[in-house]
Write a structure and sequence with these properties.
CATH class of the largest domain in chain C: Alpha Beta
CATH superfamily of the largest domain in chain B: OmpA-like domain
Radius of gyration of chain B: 17 Å
Radius of gyration of chain C: 31 Å
Helix content of chain C: 40-55%
CATH class of the largest domain in chain B: Alpha Beta
CATH topology of the largest domain in chain C: Fusion Protein Consisting Of Minor Coat Protein, Glycine Rich Linker, Tola, And A His Tag, Chain: A, Domain 2
Structural class of chain B: alpha+beta
Chains: A mainly beta, B alpha+beta, C mainly alpha
Order of helices and strands of chain B: HEEEEEHEHEHE
Shape of chain C: rod-shaped
Shape of chain B: globular
Number of domains of chain C: 2
CATH architecture of the largest domain in chain C: 2-Layer Sandwich
Helix content of chain B: 40-55%
Oligomer: heterotrimer
Number of helices of chain B: 4
Strand order of the largest sheet of chain C: 4-3-5
CATH architecture of the largest domain in chain B: 2-Layer Sandwich
Distance between the termini of chain B: 59 Å
């Protein structure tokens, strides 16, 4: 109320025009913004070159399809059907005729062209504001031709940023656990793919059980749990070089690893004699610090983006609930007080929210709350789902969902899903096999 | 104030008991669960004649039931007789929990069994503990009976 | 001697094997991921900031004239399409030369204004490339379309006239119209003060003579990206909606009108 008064004061005070009528517009439509993604123009010579190198008929339209799909997937944009376009791709060299685009109700337009220059792929693109009749952005990229998908993602990120005011999340990867086989004998492998499901690669062979991979901030390193030789331990994997090492080689089980925001430490649980507590290990000095010391189960730790706090779940109250403490383990405070069990807290990259899994009356929910536990919002309900991971801009959550089996125990599947922070735009993230434990990388380019 | 609290707790316990008994009577039809602890024999294997290999737990619990203690005493006796055998206690949880919490819960269950074996004279050197969380269910069903079979600690010969 | 060497090499081999075994097996060698090639970002803003080459400029002006004529004649859109060329060519070849000329002519300050500079075509916008074209929109739209009168004058309007305000129903009609036109950018954070105030100058038929963002200084401040996005969406809404549903009478009351766009209510819900 007070805020509103101040706002009103702010609104009225500076206006020196006496008697000016003011109308408050507090509502609008939340429909995705209609926009047109014109296929990138390409000259014949470049087209043939790319055809040879990449085996793609028309790299220009392929890239524009990536952009279109990304923007559509975000749920914030509605890319219009290309068949309705009145102008051809060759407008890349021209100023578009805005009236034509207005006719098909586009509010923004992306044009551009691809060239083969010095063995490299060069893309120029422009973003147009149709209603204002002006150019909003113009950029060019050059890269090796095999990187063409990333060019599409980077264009998507730039457009997203220009039209929403926040960073995109398209030029990113997802590391996850690929699953196959019957429910009682699952074979699990580490896998990595682009955010849109392309370029999927398996990182382990599936000889041992692997779980919960998580990226570090530079997205070069992954920490995960492996049952190699039936010793569940936290491992570290460099995805560029393929080297890996044991990090949590303690006399017991180490699990639930995550990097600290500066990437210097790994925080994890260490279980011994029936008690799980939270520890950190400095990756350089290998110094181990005990953070919690409580006879309950303390696990699923996650740092705040500034590294000052840690959230985790503990059953010290009798049931699994979410707690926040200082990074040295002091000032432990319970923050979840709703009905049911709460787990897997993950701090948002913006720092203002914690995403979690909630189990209540036999249903699993993915939700968010403020870091003091207030403002709980449940985004999605299902038979089983857990382990949310934030997109680098803190806008979207990815998690995994398992299906209920029938009376014969058949019909089990595990899939990745994503949902917008608002609770809208829930969709499956397609993977070649069943999948779980997703972790979203940061933006690969900036 | 205090009295009030006691009264409240008592009421809660009564309600809980009623609820539990309601569950028990409802599931008595299957005859395989007591409360929500599995009492059947479907999945049980034997280390030796008359020595079951596993004990079962209630949801979110790692407390040994009377039946579990009896089973573990049999195991302890058998282990004392066969002093060259080492064992792995594999702790498991059902699929109705988050993965990481279940890993910890499985570890806690296996350790509950370990502690009991140790009090009956089995050396801790002979026992190792391994938690699988919800990763290795024995029954792939998505119903209370299947889940009760999966909440278990299994004693496996290590050599 | 040679025995020792054999023993030694066997032991070494064992050691190597052992170390190799002590780690989980990876799929093949190092992982075959696409190389992370840094993508150079090349600003082409100065290129497209240049005014049109003389020929092109002429064409544009011609088109503009034609457009205005056509619009004023209320020609159906189909006809416009036929008359207008598909698009206006951009001067690509003379880039280098013109760039040099540009540098001579322009003030040095204006060239490196912002990193992500928005390139503009209109020459007038060269004066301040950062500002949004539509900040002060002087483009006159000649439309003689009759207004849709949405509501009857209510009794309390008499009172409002004296207060120089709109009656509730008048205000509601206007609001309802703009609600429909305003696509709220969905990505905005709702915890920030994101109020966009736009002052309009209107014609009696409700079409917009000029629109001005009252806090436009905020538009180009660093860290105010969200504000800019919201302001642009508000301007688009006005463009999309005009002519505005204004009351049929009392032009003097509302010829200057301020719209306060506030998306928090929507974004919070």
């Amino acid at each position: 109320m007070i805020r509103k008064l101040i706002l009103l004061f702010l609104v009225f005070f500076p206006s020196n025009t006496y008697g000016l009528i003011k109308v408050d517009i507090t509502r609008g439509n939340l429909d995705p913004l209609p926009l047109a993604v014109s296929p990138l123009a390409i000259d014949i010579e470049s087209k043939n070159k790319f055809k040879k190198i990449l085996n793609k008929q028309d790299i220009g339209s392929e890239i524009s399809i990536i952009v279109e799909r990304n923007l559509k997937t975000s749920g914030l944009f509605n890319p219009l059907n290309k068949e309705a376009f009145l102008q051809k791709p060759d407008i890349a060299n021209l100023k578009p005729r805005f009236e034509d685009w207005k006719l098909i109700k586009a509010q923004a337009l992306i044009t551009g062209k691809v060239n083969f220059v010095d063995e490299k792929l060069r893309v120029e693109f422009r973003l147009w504001d149709i209603l204002a009749g002006r150019e909003m952005m113009a950029l060019a990229f050059t890269t090796v031709p095999t990187n063409w998908r990333r060019v599409g993602h980077i264009i998507s990120d730039k457009v997203y940023e220009r039209l929403t005011g926040e960073k995109g999340y398209f030029d990113t990867r997802i590391i996850y656990v690929a699953e196959e086989g019957p429910k009682t004998q699952r074979v699990k492998k580490l896998a990595i793919m682009d955010q849109d499901g392309f370029n999927n690669k398996f990182l382990t062979l599936g000889n041992e059980l692997v779980l919960t991979p998580r990226f570090n901030k530079t997205s070069q390193l992954v920490t995960y749990l492996s049952y190699f030789r039936n010793l569940p331990r936290v491992y570290l994997l460099d995805i560029e070089t393929g080297t890996q090492e044991v990090v949590g080689d303690f006399p017991g089980m180490t699990f639930a690893p995550r990097f600290s925001p500066d990437g210097k430490k790994i925080i994890m649980s260490f279980a011994k004699d029936g008690n799980s507590d939270i520890y950190t290990m400095d990756l350089e000095s290998r110094v181990v610090d005990r953070i919690t010391n409580h006879p309950s189960i303390d696990t699923s730790p996650s740092y705040s983006p500034d590294g000052k706090f840690i959230s985790f779940n503990s059953d010290r109250s009798g049931y699994q609930q979410i707690y926040v403490m200082d990074s040295n383990g002091k000032n432990v405070k319970r923050i979840s007080f709703g009905k049911g069990l709460y787990g897997t807290p993950v701090w948002s990259p913006r720092g203002d929210l914690i995403a979690f899994t909630k189990l209540h009356k036999g249903k699993f929910y993915i939700g968010v709350m403020r870091t003091d536990g207030s403002g709980e919002r449940l985004l999605t309900e299902n038979f089983y789902q857990e382990a949310p991971s934030w997109s680098p801009n803190g806008r979207v959550l990815i998690f995994y969902r398992e299906t209920k089996t029938n009376d014969e125990g058949k019909g089990f599947s595990a899939k990745l899903w994503s949902i917008d922070l608002t609770g809208y735009n829930e969709r499956e993230v397609k993977t070649p096999t069943d999948a779980s434990d997703p972790s979203w990388s940061s933006l690969l380019s900036n | 104030m205090k009295f009030n609290k006691i009264l409240k707790n008592a009421l809660l316990i009564i309600v809980a008991c009623l609820a539990l008994s309601a569950c028990a009577t409802k599931k008595a039809g299957t005859g395989q669960m007591q409360g929500d602890v599995y009492t059947g024999k479907d999945t049980v294997e034997y280390l030796a004649s008359g020595v079951p290999d596993r004990v079962f737990f209630a949801t979110n619990e790692s407390v040994l039931t009377t039946a579990s203690r009896e089973t573990l005493r049999k195991q302890a006796a058998w282990l004392r007789k066969n002093s060259k055998i080492n064992i792995v206690l594999e702790g498991h949880a059902d699929e109705r929990g988050t993965r990481e919490y279940n890993l910890a819960l499985g570890e806690r269950r296996a350790n509950a069994a370990k502690d009991y074996l140790m009090t009956y004279g089995v050396s801790s050197d002979r026992i190792s503990v391994l938690s699988y969380g919800k990763e290795r269910p024995v029954d792939s069903g998505s119903n209370p009976l299947s889940w009760s079979k999966n909440r278990r600690s299994v004693t496996v010969k290590a050599n | 001697m040679s025995r020792n060497i054999i023993i030694s090499s066997v032991l070494h081999l064992l050691l190597i094997l052992f170390t190799a075994m002590s780690l989980p097996f990876l799929a093949k060698k190092p992982i075959n991921l696409p190389p992370i090639v840094s993508v150079e970002l090349i600003q082409i803003s100065d290129k497209s900031n240049i005014p049109f080459a003389p020929k092109a400029k002429k064409i544009i002006e011609e088109i503009k004239e034609k457009e205005e004529k056509l619009v004023s004649e209320q020609a159906p859109p189909k006809k416009i399409k036929k008359v207008k060329p598909d698009a206006v060519p951009m001067p690509e070849d003379n880039v280098e030369k013109i760039k040099k000329i540009e540098e001579d002519k322009q003030n040095p300050e204006k060239i490196d204004n912002e990193v992500k500079q928005v390139s503009e075509f209109e020459k007038k916008e060269l004066f301040d490339p950062n500002s949004i074209a539509a900040l002060i929109d002087k483009s006159k739209v000649e439309r003689a379309e009759t207004l849709k009168k949405t509501d009857k004058i209510t009794q309390d309007q008499d009172r409002n006239i004296e207060n120089t305000g709109l009656s509730l129903s008048e205000e509601d009609a206007l609001k309802a119209q703009i609600f429909g036109c305003w696509s709220i950018p969905l990505g905005l954070p709702y915890n920030e003060n994101l109020l966009v105030r736009i002052k309009l100058e209107l014609k009696p038929d409700g079409s917009v003579i000029s629109s001005e963002i009252l806090d436009h200084a905020r538009m180009n401040k660093p860290g105010q990206g969200f504000y800019k996005v919201l302001a642009e969406s508000a301007l688009r809404a006005i463009k999309l909606c005009q002519p505005l549903r204004v009351p049929s009478t009392g032009y003097e009351r509302w010829k200057d009108l301020q719209l306060n766009f506030d998306a928090r209510e929507m974004l919070e819900g």
